[in-house]
Design a protein that fits this description.
With about 400 residues, the chain is an alpha/beta fold. It folds into two domains: about 160 residues, Phosphoglycerate kinase, N-terminal domain (Rossmann fold, 3-Layer(aba) Sandwich), CATH 3.40.50.1260; about 200 residues, Phosphoglycerate kinase, N-terminal domain (Rossmann fold). The chain has 14 helices and 17 strands. Strand 15, helix 11 and strand 16 form a beta-alpha-beta unit. Helix 7 runs parallel beside helix 9. The relative contact order is 0.13.
């Protein structure tokens, strides 16, 4: 684990604290669809308020591309925080400038305000030093609690850490600790359940975990690529055009003695949108159909392997879990993880689609940890240096 100064090391009473949180929640017509990221930030906000900090929240929402866009206002998030904290969290209409400066200087001990979407400013994603200094001028110290954005070298995640005394927040600290257990002396047997669309997107994870895991249980579109790399006809299924990365991973696994479990049956349909046509076949019976989930034989084999593990990381769904006919494979591995957890295994769900699937299918509360970071968790497991974490190192 990196050595970081943490929030508990900071004297925050009476200090203006610039707090970077990841409150990039899904919205539909201004209504928040998932409060997980908001709820994950509440312990840090309460900690600061109870210790007399003057907290200024910084977050992004969506991709406004450096322009003010009412579609991406943080007003719904500020309202949700106000409700959950039972105390008003005003939204400052600007990010930097005289109005934001005036608000920061008028804060009282224990008060919390939120700046408008930091990505309204072009200097944010450019990691512009001038913009970083403008942000830093609002506060006395900086706390990064936004693990979900730690893989981005932006002004509010990396640049400002060089302008103020910088600390890791509790959520950031927890994420690093939990994910580090997957890379540093993990208990074995160690199983990586990995899905997603493309092998090429997760080559880094395969390579880095190949040194550590006992078994990969592979699903999603990438399983089709691995099957095709072994000469198996996967019909009209999604797969990478270039099979060489998958062939290289299979060869590496053979050399390292790592088991690569692949589907032996599948749930298929003639077309992606033909849910009524979903049916189960052995791999030899795929024909011209599309594979959209692992089949029950595969799910049972994966579940048996997962239940016997001491460490499990779930890094992508087994099928198109958003559609009822194609979610049972992901549900089966999730339930197996929950049973392994109950027997004392460490079970971690990566962020992004994996976390969304865990929430949707009801096993998020029954595993050891669900990451709040999608891309950040992926890059962490790849062994990459995350700029938002690097900037906090002492």
């Amino acid at each position: 684990m990196p050595t970081l100064a943490t929030l508990k090391d900071a004297d925050v009473r009476g200090k203006r604290v610039l707090l970077r949180e990841d409150l990039n929640v899904p919205l539909k017509e201004g209504r928040i669809l998932d409060y997980k990221r908001i709820d994950s930030a509440l312990p840090t906000l309460r900690y600061l308020a109870n210790r007399g900090a003057r907290t200024i929240i910084v977050s992004h929402l969506g991709r406004p591309e450096g322009k003010r866009n009412p579609k991406y206002t943080l007003k719904p998030v500020a309202s949700a925080l106000s409700e959950r904290l039972h105390s008003e969290v005003p939204l400052v209409p600007d990010v930097v400038g005289p109005a934001a400066q005036e608000v920061s200087e008028s804060l009282r001990d224990g008060q919390i305000v939120m700046l408008e979407n930091v990505r309204f400013e072009p200097g944010e994603e450019q990691n512009d030093p001038h913009f970083s200094k403008q942000l830093a001028s609002l506060a006395d110290l900086y706390v990064n609690d936004a693990f979900g954005t730690a893989h981005r070298a932006h002004a509010s995640t990396e640049g400002v850490a060089h302008c103020l005394p910088a600390f890791a927040g509790p959520l950031m600290e927890s994420e690093i600790a939990e994910l580090s257990t997957l890379l540093t002396n993990p208990e074995r047997p160690y199983v990586c359940v990995i899905g997603g669309a493309k092998v090429k997107d997760k080559i880094g994870v395969f390579r880095n975990l190949m040194e550590r895991v006992t078994t990969f249980c592979i699903g999603g579109g990438m399983a089709n690529t691995f099957l095709a790399a072994q000469g198996i006809d996967v019909g009209a299924s999604l797969r990478d055009d270039d099979l060489r990365p998958a062939q290289a991973m299979l060869e590496l696994a053979r050399n390292r003695g790592v088991e690569m479990m692949l589907p032996v049956d599948a749930v298929v349909s003639a077309k992606f949108d033909d849910d009524a046509g979903a049916h189960t076949v052995d791999l030899s019976g795929v024909g011209d159909a599309m594979i959209l989930d692992i089949g029950p034989k595969t799910a049972a084999a994966y579940a048996k392997t997962i239940e016997a593990a001491r460490t499990v990381v779930f890094n992508g769904p087994m099928g198109v879990y958003e559609k009822a006919p194609y979610r049972e494979g992901t549900r089966a591995v999730g339930e197996a993880m929950a049973r392994a957890t109950a027997r004392g295994a460490r079970t971690v769900v990566g962020g992004g689609d994996a976390a969304a699937a865990a929430e949707e299918l009801g096993f998020a509360e029954r595993v050891t940890h669900v990451s709040t970071g999608g891309g950040a968790a992926l890059e962490f497991l790849e062994g990459k240096e995350l700029p938002g974490i690097k900037a906090l190192e002492t």
